Amino acid sequence: MTSRLLWQPAAVAEPVFSSRLFVSAQERRLFLIVVAATLYQASLCLVNTVAFRINGSLVMLAEMLVYALALACVAREIPRYMGLMLLVTAVNVCLLFLLRGYVEPKSARDLLIVLLFFWLGWRHGTPQLVDKVLTCILLLAIGMGLFEWLALDTYVKLFHTFSYFMNQSGIGANGGAIFEGQALTLNGFRPEGIGRTILPWLFGAHRISSVMLEPVSLGNLAVITLIWAISRDRWQERQALFFLFAAAFLIALSDSRFGLVVSGLIVLVRLIWPLAGYGVLALAPWAMIGFLYLYSAVFFDGVYTDSFAGRLMHSGQVLTELPLKEWLGWQSPLRDYGDMGYGYILTRFGLFYLLFAWLVLWRIPLLAPRSIRLRGLISIYITMILSISGTSLFALKTAGLLWFMLGTLCAVALNSRTSAAITAKETYP
Questions:
Q1: End-to-end alpha-carbon separation of the chain, Å?
Q2: Per-residue pLDDT tens digits for 183-217
Q3: Alpha-carbon dihedral sign for residues 308, 311, 317, 320
Q4: Taking a C-beta distance cutoff of 8 angstroms, is the pair 223, 248 a contact?
Q5: pLDDT tens-digit series, residues 135-188
Q6: Rounded to 5°, angle at Cα 146 from 142 and 151
Q7: How large is the C-alpha radius of gyration of the chain?
Q8: Are 82 and 6 in contact (CB under 8 A)?
Q9: How far apart are CA 89 and CA 95, in angstroms?
Q10: CB neighbours of residue 289 within 10 Å
Q11: With contact defined as beta carbons under 8 Å apart, do 153 and 160 qualify?
Q12: What is the pTM of this model?
């Protein structure tokens, strides 16, 4: 009883049939917030290309506006569990800032995205709304992807992604581009000697980014879409098939090796893994840390390669060299861990907080099969992306959507459980 009361979300109203796109003004606001969180970078890139320069400060202001709009939707009432998480998170962030001797705002921002969008989905999200949001984003992503592929010269006149990212960070300046006059991001092309993995005869070396501006982010969006589609009880229904097609198409466009490998793993788990065994997936990130540590310690030969196996080796090598202070997040100054996600989260958030937060997520008492699958499959995504990428798990354009989905289905599952318990109590006093 204590667990159920602690995790009790707000009541989620049953969807009412309506010929309108949105059943309420609240649903329309949520739709706009989550879509804006995903597409704000594309909008700023368009402004940067055709109007005026967008620097890092303006991007930060745009993000803060999205956070403020999301917070305005949920701040009137703080559920007991969310108050606990906010308190623990604030204490952890402040304590680590004191131990390091300086403030590192990005780590606080990363946690804000996770907590805020999970909270937003928990309080107000519905599966129908997620379907609408995802359908809108995917239609835009497919349309813009085709535009970038078939009319690249025109596309870069509107979305000069190389200059957009260079204005923010300076990456690519002073000869950092692959070739003179490059208009797409540095990873928008496969370098010579590596080449495209998916349909090179059709797309050449070009990796398409579409509205996500980076092919890595487009591949991540595809994996998130796949997870949402196959977490359903009946994933052969028409809308789920559209999501599956869109995920496959976006992986092909972006030439996402991560998307290809992880999608295959996720589909395999969905097909053969019994629902009763999904709780084991709570151990996935910690098992991966152990695997990477041992893998690198045994097989590392001093040579790194930009391949999937090479990325795993590199992440493991970082873990073998990580001093205790960095495992706990106390090290100062913080080092840049690039594409090594486990090194990034351990040094930024600390091992104790990560253990606590992951335990809290997996202690949410879910009974609905769809919610159990979604949490388990998202855990696989998190486990794998931290193995080969540094901060893309916390990129607002995909993280907001991911945590909104999870918060939505966790709330739906709990309300279903509560309703069933109330009905049983009334029927069998």
A1: 17
A2: 887 777 776 667 788 888 888 888 999 999 999 99
A3: negative
A4: no
A5: 999 999 999 999 999 999 999 899 988 888 888 875 555 545 555 557 887 777
A6: 150
A7: 22
A8: no
A9: 10
A10: 19
A11: no
A12: 0.88
